[in-house]
Write a structure and sequence with these properties.
Number of domains: 1
Number of strands: 2
Organism: Tardiphaga alba
Strand order of the largest sheet: 1-2
Distance between the termini: 45 Å
Largest sheet: 2 strands, antiparallel
InterPro entries: FtsW, FtsW/RodA
Subcellular location: Cell membrane
Keywords: Cell cycle, Cell division, Cell membrane, Cell shape, Cell wall biogenesis/degradation, Glycosyltransferase, Membrane, Peptidoglycan synthesis, Transferase, Transmembrane, Transmembrane helix
EC number: 2.4.99.28
Strand content: under 5%
Order of helices and strands: HHHHEEHHHHHHHHHHH
Oligomer: single chain
Shape: globular
């Protein structure tokens, strides 16, 4: 039994971690297991695999993800900073290796195979980059003379450039939105925020005219008659067929023809089989996680923990919002997984690392520890 009287690392973790936030994350994972079982068998059958191939792999990836999530949630803010630096450096090296040696699929190089495992390094780069940016922003406030903000901008340009070379504009826009939100939270001047927003809009404008792939998706979104909109149309039909209560487990029609029913469009499959009520429940879970994390971040007195937790919560929420918006045809189609629901090993483990850091940063810590962390940073850069 875990009690307050017995001071062990496990009891310390249990009584300081946000258990409601942890329960919501576990609920998402369980929903992902159910929806993977519902959506993946037809896809596996179509490509000649065992019907439960993707479901079994989903469970296989879920086990190390839970280990990573719990393990990272034990970390201190200092350990989180150090781990983020290591993970980000490895992710950048893997992205470079992917550009050099990765196979080209549908005009993009996003995956590299290491020891028989397909790895999408950009997934690990996202949360680690946000944590490093949060640390730099907190340092720029503590030490105005330190060029921390400039360093954060340089790192952003470097990462975005690598993603554009793949190309992966979806991940690029996600990182830009999370970084811009963090930049705003850190109290930067509105002129800088407006300038960055203008630069992002200009980059999207250039991509429209210079990258046919991007232009095609925007055109199909604005005018469905201009190209193939099969997946989006099928997803919309799934929402219509499901109604409020759904057709029932295993009774969905859309998954029989949707190529990405277990990844990008699992939300539509869930709507058809379990109804709009399930979609609203998932939306409520995502909203609760983001709002709860932001409120806990606001309550902490350590600037780094506040910024990092806020950035990770925004990154998590924006990714979920993009996936659901694509399924509902509210934005142009873009391959983006629904956190802990869609199939994908790299995505699931990186999300576990991200929310593990989120749980660690929002743990209740005594004031003296926060002061000790600040004092250590001050001594380091004195």
């Amino acid at each position: 039994m875990i009690t307050r009287e017995h001071r062990t690392p496990l009891s310390e973790w249990w009584w300081t971690v946000d258990r409601l936030l942890l329960a919501a994350i576990i609920a998402l994972m369980l929903a992902g297991v159910i929806l993977s079982l519902a959506a993946s068998p037809p896809v596996a059958t179509r490509i000649g695999l065992d019907p439960f191939h993707f479901f079994n792999r989903h469970i296989l990836f879920l086990v190390p993800s839970i280990v990573v999530l719990i393990g990272v949630s034990f970390m201190s803010p200092r350990q989180i900073r150090r781990s983020a630096l290591v993970v980000f450096a490895l992710a950048v090296l893997l992205i470079l290796a992917t550009l050099a040696f990765g196979p080209e699929v549908k005009g993009a190089k996003r995956w590299i195979t290491i020891v028989g495992v397909n790895i999408q390094a950009s997934e690990a780069a996202k949360p680690s980059f946000i944590v490093i940016a949060a640390w730099l922003f907190s340092e720029s406030i503590r030490k105005p003379g330190m060029p921390a903000t400039s360093m954060a901008v340089v790192m952003l340009i470097m990462l975005v450039s690598l993603l554009i070379l793949q190309p992966d504009f979806g991940q690029t826009m996600l990182i830009l939105m999370a970084w811009g939100s963090l930049f705003f939270i850190a109290g930067m001047r509105m002129v800088w925020v407006a300038g960055l927003a203008g630069a992002a809009a200009g980059g999207l404008f250039l991509a429209y005219f210079m990258v046919p792939h991007v232009a095609g998706r925007i055109k199909r979104f604005m005018d469905p008659a201009s190209g193939d909109t099969f997946q989006v149309d099928t997803a919309m039909e799934a929402f219509s067929n499901g109604g409020w209560y759904g057709l029932g487990p295993g009774e969905g029609i859309a998954k029989r023809s949707l190529p990405d029913s277990h990844t990008d469009f699992v939300f539509a499959v869930g709507a058809e089989e379990f109804g709009i009520l399930l979609c609203l429940a998932l939306l409520a879970l995502f909203a609760f996680i983001v709002i709860r994390a932001l409120s806990r971040a606001y309550a902490t007195e350590d600037l780094f923990s506040r910024f990092a937790a806020s950035g990770l919560a925004i990154l998590f929420g924006v990714q979920a919002a993009i996936n659901m918006a694509v399924n509902l045809h509210l934005i142009p189609a873009k391959g983006m997984t629904l956190p802990f629901i869609s199939y994908g090993g790299s995505s699931m483990i990186s999300l576990a690392y991200s929310v593990g850091m989120l749980l660690a940063l929002t743990r209740m810590r005594p004031r003296t520890e926060v002061e000790a962390i600040d004092a250590h940073v001050a001594r380091t850069y004195a």
